[in-house]
Amino acid sequence: GLERGAKNQFSTFSNFITTINQKKEGIGNRNSPTQLVIPNIKNVRDLPPICLDVRQKQRMSIDTLPQELKAPIPPEPALPIRTKTVKDFQDDVEKAKSSGDWKAVHDFYSTTFDSFLEINAAFKKDTNSPFNTFEDSGINAKFVNVVYDALLNTPQDVQKSVLKGVINGLLQEWKGPRTKDDLRAYCILLQNPQFSNTSTYVIYAHLLRQIAALTEADHHFLVHWSKKISQKRFKQLVDRLLQFISLRLFPAKPEEFPPMVKCTWWIPSATKVLALFNAANSLISPPIISYTDFYNSTLDHIDLMEEYHNWQCYGNSHRFSFCQYPFIISIAAKKVIIQRDSEQQMISIARQSLVDKVSRRQKPDMNMLFLNVKVRRTHLVSDSLDELARKRADLKKKLKVTFVGEAGLDMGGLTKEWFLLLIRQIFHPDYGMFTYHKDSHCHWFSSFKCDNYSEFRLVGALMGLAVYNSITLDIRFPPCCYKKLLSPPIVPCDHNTLVGICDVTLDDLFQIMPELAHGLRELLSHEGNVEEDFYSTFQVFQEEFGVIKSYNLRPNGDKIPVTNQNRKEYVQLYVDFLLNKSIYKQFAAFYYGFHSVCASYALLLLRPEEVEILVCGSPELDMSALQRNTQYEGYQKTDLTIRYFWDVVLGFSLDLQKKLLHFATGSDRVPVGGMADLNFKISKSETSTNWLPVAHTCFNQLCLPPYKNKKELKQKLIIGISNAEGFGLE
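-> structure tokens emitted (730 positions)
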């Protein structure tokens, strides 16, 4: 159902051409605007949904294909000779605007878009060159942009002639595989701004269908050519595809589109083409646009769990699910999937515990439905370690924390306090598990060897419990850590398989040890004799408990000098040693701890950056949103003190705003759901106005005395948030 030769599948196109011709005959004046009317599709055969199962292929990575896998290149047919230049076209447009005679422009558009050959004749940089490489599409991008920019400002009959030509191109008989000229035409047609109009969606859908059905080798070319498109045009293409998917899911005017049952292939085709642009974006560092620009927030309003279960049940079958293309699902939607998946696992495990108890004729106890952690404040780490190790089977139950010797029910506050205190103690430099790097403001795993790595497993389990129980942690790991945490995203069955090992680069090292990374970069760019000037070998040294130890990066590395020829290998091995090999046992324990709680196929949906946001929250602050969602106790939002407070806070620098958030909540980052999920509260403190503000971080609560003026409030607030560290003044 994907070949062009089957014309009966595109009967709608013939109807559409007839409609256009009829409307053209009824137009007396070329300049009179006419709204295109697209007839409903009838008898269109369903396209088997296009699936890319992320279990087998988590990310679409496009690499150069080996020669033997490349499809044979069919001979390119001879192109017509077209000599019009950008300047000639612009002159024609200006003359048409001043004279009102659009004939020359109309002829150009109708001829150029009449077939794939004509598109290449007009826009190919050199009609005599094949342009069969990834590096150069051969498209005159400037000419394409100028022609498309002018198109929407031309009379309606000119625009219709373009659409008619596009239809002609899509209806052409196919004989043999696609040529590179055909791929060029697809690449150019995708950029047509007319496809932003819902009246053209029938044509757009068939264009997307044909592109989605191309071979993998052809997709490789489109991906590499797409990464050369300017950022502005690239973003427009992505937005157009996202809008197409959104309006097909939730049409503003359903009568504009064919019935969903007649075009089930629309959304899979568009999503597959969007995947090509996502692959192109990921090939470039830095990417052309942010990965968040591929999010489709419309999907937040569909039945996400049905999508997730379809993906789990049908995998790589022909049943389409958005979960096969996780780049399109927003982090908020992924959080919902993970939370509901966690809740279902919690309920399932709690139910099983209840059934086991009843089957043994024992009296059920409500405590058996929870992961109950009892700890002494004086032995916080050891007690937590013992509790989590002893109750490993209960890790997926709802967490409840009790501090021994203290009265109080855990309604969420004690759990958060337990996380805060435990993280603070474990990451303290004196504890020795993690090293804090001041230059990068982040922690990294200590490479010191020890007999027991169970405490690293505890930290991993803590992170997993935080995600599982929707707690935001104040942890400062570099992005590389989350990349390793998803390597692989599902714990392998074979325990001999290495975990937490990923490809690392000098950029990853820069995020942890910028000074060392800068030195290695200087080594790579050194123009002199590396062997004589640096006098280094494939051996590195590390200090462990006051003792300097040496490690060979290669067998007999101490005897292999670093030279101009092998310095790249040296740098890569050194980075791999620092970020993978030297901390393997520590990170493996951390990895297994995290996945002991968060073992879920939902992790396959996540990028490393998204795992970080789920664990630590987002760094983007919106204090106006916080103001709108703040609750008050003892104050009204119209009270003078509250008005002073928000005047001061909204005028703070970003650094002070982060300090305020950290002071009040224990973290300067925002949960995935935004400020509304913080449940931030300002309470009236009946103490003297000489006192500083006080915060209860376990409840995200700020206690504010009724200061008499804005100056006093600002002074006291800055002193409080700038000098407070944890649960007391520095």
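Residues 86 and 143 are 6 Å apart (CA to CA).
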